[in-house]
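Q: I have 340 residues here and want to know how they pack in 3D. Can you give me a structure?
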Amino acid sequence: MQNLNLPLILSFNASDPVGASGLQADAATCASLDCHALSVTTALLVGDSAGIEEIFPVESETVGRQARALLEDMTIASFKVGTIGTLESVPLIAEILVDYPETPLILDPFSGYMPWDDNQEDDTLQAICELLVPQTTLLILREADLDRMSLFWPELEQTPATAECAARILATGCDTVLITGCGADALAEPGSTCHEMYNDDGLICRLRLSNPGDRTGGGSTFSAAMACLVALDMPHAEALRHANAYLEESQRQAHPLGMGRAIPFHHFRMPVSIVEPTGLPAAVDGPAAAALQALAAEPADEAGAQEVVITYYVDDDDDDDDDGENTEGSDPDTQRGWKH
């Protein structure tokens, strides 16, 4: 039997019946990026392609038993922690992870469309900040979620600037903070946004995105891709660019499964275990290759941070029955296609 020696990614996450997010998206993303996903189910979601309606947490004892069974049997290349079903599961997961200080931990604590009780969420988030963030290799936050991280700046009435938010979180022991969906500068194209990555040296990478769009499951797909790339020993700033390329291609091919939102398409292979001297994955064809060609690093700015402009596929037509082709005589500003 052939031993592929695929890196093993252990994900603590919820089970999504649609497969757009959660453990299902993690598994599909890992397969596309030459890794293998192992799963610890923290909650069962009830919903459809329109969104999540209910969440049924898995008991913390069950979460712990499943994680330890896998860890006693296999060597893990990286951990991903997404949705945590109960407050009691947070210290249990933290206790497990503390035994693996050399294994990267990707923490993506906020998942959209989760029907949490406000008081439960506050207690769970406080536990995550106190017990998991200090162990984290890469913490992924959306700029819109920073207000929820006020535990790190209790003396301030308002959320500080992005750089200060990152600095305060890093002071707890977290290695790297990635803040996505930041407002772009005044010179950027309308509708664009950017991702900013910080470590103890300050801003190390800014990725400006043109019309990135929004799809159900995009966050899960992105953080799973980051977990794979970090497991493959890719530097964080480079992993950010590759993960965005993967996310873009999965969203470009997104398709409706029902009457709700389009679901990211994961059934393509974007191998990164063999990397060319340019830093781009080998053997990538078509639109995925076009996206990757936009990832050439620009010279560092005065602060030493790299800034890269990403080409994104835009889809301004929200009709579910659109076949993806431009219609004759349509407005070129609303046509689908690759765009800088």
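Q: Anything worth noting?
A: The chain has one domain: 8-189+211-268. DSSP finds eight helices and 14 strands in the chain.
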